[in-house]
Amino acid sequence: MNPEPFLQLDRVIHEKGRLALMSLLAATDELSFTDLRDTLGMSDGNLMSHVRTLQEAGYVAVTKSFRESRPLTTCSLTKSGRAAFVTYIGLLEQIVAQTKQR
Q: 85: which residues sit within 8 A by CB, 6+ positions away?
């Protein structure tokens, strides 16, 4: 078995909570912080920690605005975040394909 795909997995994305977050954001243009929190079943602090890590890596953009006079925080994948996620999924597909060949 070729270990190379395992070694190339992006450690920022690979963590379970961040992988779930990236997966949700990859399926849509943007999601509110509240929707992400509720869907993932995370606390505000835990989600914010993951969002901050992905934001520092340049994978997630955070936008703060107002809707009906209430603050609204939304998250979306950046262009590089989407590319990193596609690469990550491609590596997982390689790993699965190797496993099936055995």
A: 13, 22, 23, 26, 59, 77
